[in-house]
Amino acid sequence: MKHLNDKTIQNLIDNELPENDRKTVEMHLDECPSCRQRVEAQRAFSEKMKKSLETLVPDEIAVPEFSFGKATRPEVNVNRIVLVSSLATACSIADAQVIKLIPDEIYGQGNNWDKIFDTYYDTVIGRPYGLRKQLVVFDDGKAIVSHATRNRYSLFDSNGKFLKDITLYFAEKGKKPRNHQPVEGKLGDLYFTKANNTGDIYLFNDKGLIVKELKIKYQALEMLALDDHHIAIYGGTSWADRYRDFVSILDTKTGKEKILCDKFSESSGELKNKGYFIYTEGKRDDMKGQWQIAKVNGKLIVSNPIDGLVRTYDFNGNKISEKLLDWEPQTLTVEEQIALQNARIKDLKDELPGETDERVLRFYNDFITYYKNGI
Question: Is the pTM higher than 0.85?
Answer without folding.
Answer: no
